[in-house]
Amino acid sequence: MAVTILRVLAFEKSQTLLANRLEQLFDYYRELKNDMLSFIFNGDVSDDITDGIIRITEYNVNNFEVLAKMSRRISFIMVECFQNVVRHGVKHERITEEKASGLFAARLMGDANYVSSINLIDATEVSLLQAKLNQLNDIEKDKLKALYLEVLNNDELSSKGGAGLGLIQLARKAGQPISFDFENISEDLSNFYLSLKLTNNEEQTKQGEALRFTKDFDKKIKESDVLMIYKGDFGKDSILPIIQIIEEKMRAENETGSKAFFLILVELLQNVSRHNIQNENKDGIFMINEDSEGAYWTSVGNVVNQETMQLLTERLEDLNAMEPEELKAAYKQTLREGSFSEKGGAGLGLIEIARKSSEKLKYSFDKMGDDMFFFTFNVKF
Amino acid sequence: MIDSLLLDATEDTPLIDFNTETGVFKISGRALPEDALEFFKPVEEWLKSYVENPLDSTLVEMRVDYFNSASTRYIFNILMTFEDLIDEGKEAKIVWYYKESDDMIQTKGEELSSILEVPFEMKTL
Questions:
Q1: Residues B79, B82, B86, CA angle at the centre, nearest 5°?
Q2: Which ipTM did the prediction report?
Q3: pLDDT tens per residue across span B12-30
Q4: Range of the domain at B74
């Protein structure tokens, strides 16, 4: 019952958001502005994308001195947290009602870094997990290693992949209490919140801080229809792992027509680094939403200067004024002659996006400062 | 005759196997490099030398899976080279392989074939 009401609310909410999709990306960008890396994955997770997450993290982390010092710990904690969702998550066939109940979020801000996961677990597992986590939080730091070795050498491993070795390792590497919570959502299912805050100093985190952070952020994400957000570097080394993650995800879901979607994605992501105010760290944001009708919205955003804004506006308007046949002709002409009009014109990438998009191209510019505009580009597929 | 050109495929660049002993030039895999120039420049350089002293007949086999717009331009330029060879009285032919279920690669092949003046054959894999 409660679930049905929630879904109705979510549906109405998403209808309103549909109109505000362009603003939504800028909102998230402003919220995540100071993050060196944000990665949010909302939905069913599987092990296939672990590798991609490691690659994104490692590359971004090593880009910032303040993070590089913690790079191994951060990567480790991200992977453990993520795999915790995979390992303990209830298998998909049981979550038909609440498909998007898992969440993995990492926000690295330098001094404070949060890694969190939320996933559905079997209600029967709650008491055992609770006991394990309380035990880990109570134990003195230097005893954790002994406990780790003890469990490692114990043959009675649980069927879920180890008797809490992952959690012990999490506690060791975090050097902070693990924040956690459980929330019953039905008779046999419970939401498991797990949250860690990493700092680059010895300062102890207040109990529950990381948890509040996670719950607030989760609420915001769940109220929209976000599947994935990435905020960080858009250079080649970051884009490839993102592409890899999405490809794995699509393969797992056996999406039809996914090839064209994949190509739009590549063009959009590469467009961010092509038109970027920064030459070095090509910062930007990327988001995928799934609306209530099952259509995917892909948005990318980044900061450009006035000159780029004018150029992009001209080109996008040109493309929006064309019919499919004209776009095709423009594509061929650009391929053969370099451009489709005497004054230049959109490159192959933009024409390709316009041709594959199911609607006219949607974009906006928001002034951010002197000669700085936030460019949002949104494609429905 | 210049030496054959062989570049192994990577995560975002295709296999380039231009064999000057057999006269079979193959491009296969995915081409998604952000910096397409960096990857294709050496291929274009090599082709420049090849056309100075080409074989009488070249067979181009394309088995591409994905390519981004930046690579499209270079792939097109590479295929154009064979148009030039034909103009000089040599023989060249392009075979474009695609999976029956892959509309996208099929369409790409048809589009390229409609703007290139080179014998162009579409074949299902």
A1: 150
A2: 0.81
A3: 999 999 999 999 999 999 9
A4: 5-124
